[in-house]
Specification:
27% helix; 6-stranded mixed sheet; alpha/beta; elongated; 2 domains; 5-stranded mixed sheet; Purple Acid Phosphatase, chain A, domain 2; 339 residues
């Protein structure tokens, strides 16, 4: 027997096209590697009550798969109770489908949908790898980033990019176990080609002069606060941001294919002000385009800031927005950012 294992597809209406391509790639891999059994580690759908288009997509996959599939019914997205799940319908309609809370094959393999205390994202974890040490293989869903927890556990990760916390992941994978139960048994992790790539870039005036390219490289860094001197106003026209950082950002964005999920982290107001005119251009180009601001005005006298400088900041920003050719809804969102 040859097993293929995947998980955390999180089908949504907005991701139907991407999810269909991923499922078609899984079908192709099943045929290529003579897969006899498939295991879905859970969170197949993102919503507790998927719409018909989402249900139809996975039903079509099961029909075309035409081989046994075990689906983990995750408590997080697909189950109203321990017994009830939207996935149960697939088990009723097809003898090839088995819907379970966990999968056990003696002490050989265990599959479930939860995190361990040793997982990278471990909040709320109830079990540790010690609780599963008697199994030869343990494959788990729920955590979206791939992680091997030695000696025998794997957080397989999501098979597409769901959240920008996953932008640091180099790839999305599925697992294949060939010659299951035989002396020649092997586990392989194969990179999926279908997931839409995800990129997180950073824009800041505090970029390193020695390595300007690092200024917008995706990193898990804390927010850098922009300090506004008490006696200076933003409306004075000073712009300490090196224009080359905006140019560098645009160069990288222009090189990315439209089928990319992009997020820009903006760490100071000057960067934010120069970036705003670019929003419409890039939001219309990319599959997903978001930006996040992490700056605030700081003063040595916070009470004075609250009574005078904050007012000046808001007025300056509002006046500047009124002169820009920006959609009114976007203006409202931007004004809320500084409230």
């Amino acid at each position: 027997m040859n097993y293929l294992i995947f998980g955390d597809l999180h089908i949504t209406q907005s991701s139907l096209e991407e999810c269909e391509k991923i499922l078609n790639e899984i079908l192709m891999l099943c045929n290529k590697y003579s897969i006899t059994n498939v295991i879905d580690l859970g969170d197949t759908f993102n919503n507790l009550r998927p719409i018909s288009l989402e249900l139809d997509l996975f039903a079509k996959f099961i029909k075309n798969l035409n081989r046994p599939i075990t689906i983990i019914s995750a408590d997080s997205h697909e189950s109203t109770t321990k017994e009830e799940s939207i996935l149960n319908h697939y088990g009723i309609l097809s003898n090839n489908v088995s819907v379970v809370k966990e999968y056990k094959d003696t002490n050989h393999m265990y599959c479930g949908h939860f995190i361990l205390k040793e997982s990278n994202i471990s909040y709320g974890a109830k079990l540790s790898k010690e609780d599963l040490k008697n199994y030869l293989y343990v494959f788990l869903g729920h955590q979206h980033s791939f992680q091997i927890i030695k000696p025998n556990c794997v957080q397989l990760g999501s098979c597409r990019y769901i959240d920008f916390s996953e932008a640091v992941d180099k790839q999305k994978v599925i697992a294949i176990i060939s010659d299951y139960g035989l002396e020649t048994e092997q586990v392989h992790f194969l990179k999926l080609k279908s997931p839409i790539p995800m990129v997180e870039l950073k824009l800041s005036k505090n970029a390193s002069k020695e390595a300007p390219g690092q200024a917008i490289k995706a990193k898990n860094e804390g927010a850098v606060k922009s300090i506004q001197e008490p006696n200076k106003s933003i409306s004075e026209g000073e712009n300490p941001l090196n224009p080359s950082q905006i140019d560098l950002l645009c160069q990288q964005l222009d090189k990315l294919p439209p089928k990319t999920k992009v997020k820009i982290k903006i760490e100071d107001f000057e960067s934010f002000r120069l970036f705003l005119p670019l929003v419409n251009k890039y939001s219309s180009k990319f599959e997903v385009f978001k930006y996040e601001t992490s700056f605030e005005v700081v003063s040595t006298d916070r009470e004075k800031l609250q009574s005078t400088e904050t007012k000046s900041f808001k007025e300056s920003f509002n006046n500047w927005l009124s002169k820009q050719n920006i959609d009114s809804k976007i203006k409202d969102i931007l004004l809320k950012e500084i409230e």
